[in-house]
Amino acid sequence: MAHAALLHSPLPSTSAAARRRCGHNNYRVPCRPVSRRRLRPMASSTASQAPAPAPPGLKEGIAGLYDESSGLWESIWGDHMHHGFYDSGEAASMADHRRAQIRMIEEALAFAAVPADDPEKQPKTVVDVGCGIGGSSRYLAKKYGAQCKGITLSPVQAERGNALAAAQGLSDQVSLQVADALEQPFPDGHFDLVWSMESGEHMPDKRKFVNELARVAAPGGTIIIVTWCHRNLEPSETSLKPDEVSLLKRICDAYYLPDWCSPSDYVSIAKSLSLEDIKTADWSENVAPFWPAVIKSALTWKGITSLLTSGWKTIRGAMVMPLMIQGYKKGLIKFTIITCRKPGAA
């Protein structure tokens, strides 16, 4: 979801009472940039080691960023706050991008082999970790007739998502709340499908993140993680190259991201937790048209006026957008899917 923070606008439907509860003044949260730090790629051996502590103010920064950005993102891109999936080399028109976002959901479900035709095997309970305004939650609830819980750090997103669920007649199936993905307010073994669409990049402790996903998954349940990673290290490397570290640092500072990790790090963590059927794929080429489209939308009249009125954080985020494209082209940033399954009951 981090790219949703590029465009900032208040949500017109969010109540003044909610803003007061959340400590907001005109939807603004004074978010301090995360403290400067050396960006370290995780070596695969770190899957069992304690991570570096989260930068001060990280959760508050993430919440404020999405409180501010979600309204304009919704008005331009709709309620799915994630990349679209395209055929490799496809030249997509603006009209294709929302369909591509739905396709991203379907491709992730297919990659994880979530049953599509057998109602008895389809997920009945779903958790959407880093749910945004609940686009995936509502889609999965309608697709499977499932009960869906969503969690986000943003009070504005949770309120807006619940309002959208009510407007679509899904209040009895979809419920969003403010909660930390690293300390989920759900019992062990509860969800048939654990879904994380572009939230892992915000997690300061990747092992604890995956452990929580596994904890709340039901025996035999499916876990789907779609996230931004840096490239895998070569056997001769112990870290990323200095220019790669510098590029990621600039992206991190703009979007409230902690240290990145590689796809192989996620696989190592999943193996260490005894998860099964672990699969991963690099979908970087399949999301290539997305960032140019985001930049194009920011250069519309609505995007430009919002940038000019939203302040330095928004302008800085817009300035960093080309760095994402650069990172993809260099092979540094990898748009990755990781799926696995919790072992079934004995």
TrEMBL record:
Alphabetic keyword roster: Methyltransferase, S-adenosyl-L-methionine, Transferase
Low complexity composition bias: residue spans: 41-51
Domain Methyltransferase type: 127-225
Keyword Glycosyltransferase: no
Origin superkingdom: Eukaryota
Record-stated family: Belongs to the class I-like SAM-binding methyltransferase superfamily. gTMT family.
PANTHER family per record: MAGNESIUM PROTOPORPHYRIN IX METHYLTRANSFERASE, CHLOROPLASTIC-RELATED, METHYLTRANSFERASE
Protein name listed in UniProt: Methyltransferase type 11 domain-containing protein
